[in-house]
Amino acid sequence: MEAVPSPLPDTDSDRDWSELPVDALSAIFTKLGTVEILMGASFVCHSWLAASKSPELWRFVDMTRHKVIFSKRTGILCAMAKAAIDRSDGQIESFWAQKFVTGELLDYIVRRASTLKSIRLVACTFIQWQSLAMLAAKCPLLEEIECSYHKMPADFFKCVGRVRPNLKRLRVHMHYFDQDELENELIKHVLEEGGEVFEEPFEQREARRNADAFAIAENMHELRLLQIAGHNLTEIGVRAILDGCPHLECLDLSSCHDIYVDGQLQARFAMIRHVRLPGLMMVTAQISVPSVRGSLWLIFSEVSLALCLRRWRWGMVPMAMTKSLRPLTPVST
């Protein structure tokens, strides 16, 4: 005798999702992002709105890499961020945002988020460095700062290092530009206009290009992670960072194309867990470096072959080193 299949449930008897308990709704909302909760779940019904206001959901606020960030006006996005901060009820630990943050919003965070441990701002060009430094001073638990694709002066790093000497992670990515090429173009233009050009002393030029690195090295001794990709620092600045930040575990120098890596720097990089070096041409060089644990094999990736060859012509790189470099497939960084 064939089994009779059970009838499908009547659509009219489908579950009423508004009757879910608050704990269950909160567990579901943890799978959603900040923007999805603010613009979606909060508007379903009153019970969902109530569940979306649980402070536990707002300890980590991430308003980056979402299409809404690129389509809504700054005022609307700032209002959304303020709503998220208010819902945290003073328990927010991380605030990440892209593009829209203003100095007024940073002041709002300072007044309501003294528990903040991480702030990451990407391409937030509306803010001044003093506002972010003030936030660092007012948030005693702060361990991580990112301010990428918005140039910060050396004074910013000095100030933050003084008020937050125990800062653990700093991220300041920039779009690299060839400063030598830019300066040569400016000199050419001045000469064409009949102007006079004065050569900048080498020491002064190095100090200017490494000002950020020197400020970090002198004021942020407890850093574990430093991402300074795209900056125009040289090997002098890198050595200063390695001297001033002895606890570094991760160092990102990608797209810093003015760094010459000699044997001494190679040995020092070997003592850091993760190092990312610059380059448009991917090359691999294996260098045996002695350490307290014996022989370590350090794989240097993303070394600029063109830079090495250029500096060899200047007499700055031994030919033996250029022969040990093997070009791989070009990649974007």
TrEMBL record:
One of the record's GO molecular function terms: SCF ubiquitin ligase complex binding
Source organism of the structure: Oryza sativa subsp. japonica
Pfam families per record: F-box-like (PF12937)
Residues in F-box domain copies: 17-62
Record's protein name: Os08g0193300 protein
